[in-house]
């Protein structure tokens, strides 16, 4: 780590603390050359491999913008979406992988979205899982009903 004051290529860690959310470490450092003190924040990065093969850093904002479209007209707040994106990121980090397929992120979004709003879940799932017929929707609705213990309307 270069000193921001004198550009010396080394520094000594004086103190390390985990952030409140547990996703980063704040380190207090001192330059052995000029004695200047400064802080750094270290985080483990998540990379996403897109369908095109391009790799980019994970972004909660992209999760929120993708899900926001499915939540249009639904009683879902920006705070709800921010919490959903946080849950998704935590689930992805718990997988222990630093590089994820875009498909894995979509799968990680489905369950928290289902808990948040079932209509938004159906909208998102219809695009994400590429529903091609009314039968696909009926199947998804049957899964939702089964999850809540409701009788399936297609059963006689």
From TrEMBL:
Superkingdom per UniProt: Bacteria
Signal sequence segment: none
Organism listed in the record: Microbacterium faecale
InterPro entries xrefs: ATP-cone_dom, NrdR-like_N, RNR_NrdR-like
Tagged with keyword Transit peptide: no
Cofactor note: Binds 1 zinc ion.
Protein name per the record: Transcriptional repressor NrdR
HAMAP family xref list: NrdR (MF_00440)
Gene: nrdR
Pfam families to which the protein is assigned, alphabetical: ATP-cone (PF03477), Zn_ribbon_NrdR (PF22811)
